[in-house]
Write a structure and sequence with these properties.
Length: 253
Amino acid sequence: MLESSFIFLKGIGETTERRLWSEGITDWRQFLETSTALNIGPARKALYDREIEQALDDLRRAQWRKVAGRFKTADHWRLFETFRKRTVFLDIETNGYPAGEGEITMVGLYGQHTMTTLVRHQNLTLDRLQDELSNYDLIVTFFGSGFDLPYLRASFPRLALSHAHFDLCFAARRLGMRGGLKHIEAELGLSRSDDLQGLNGWDAVNLWHAWQAGDARAGETLHQYNEADVRNLEPLAEYLYQALRDRHGPVCN
């Protein structure tokens, strides 16, 4: 989908992009090989060619952040397939207070087939978090735009978070799906263990406080809850990406 995207070019929106696709120009290389497209004038065509050539060069040199920087955040879903090996699924837990007042209790990260859990008072530090995130260029969350990422920035002001961001909450809304993560998981048949059924974010807060008071079982449950939140982002992202591609991408023959 990434190399079929033309909306990063100034003056091209989704309508013009679809017209290009309908003319058989479905990727960047085809655009470069076409002398004329949609009556685009020679000067503008030459400008677009240079921008596309630079984007292709950035891809060849694995300059992922530069590629992502060409797109608006709302279009970062288009990066998912190409950035797949550089993608991390992220979810945080807190002590229940707002960003700037409260504390992050746990950060769950799942990427490159590895689950990593960072816990307050154990291994959750700025350096460790930055080191983990440096392995990735695309972050996937559910409502991370409104919660996880602002909370991380408030808690770790020196944390570098220049990653592209695929927020599954807004992707789901774009497809007409409503409700929170647990509701959408159930709608799509994504399962959780019986022990975690019915638990929500406030339960996670209570589990943290119980754990700090000496309840080891609460800590185990909190770990399992966070891991389920994080791991279920992967199949959800795959489903939403494909659904968005089917609706907003070129028609595959």
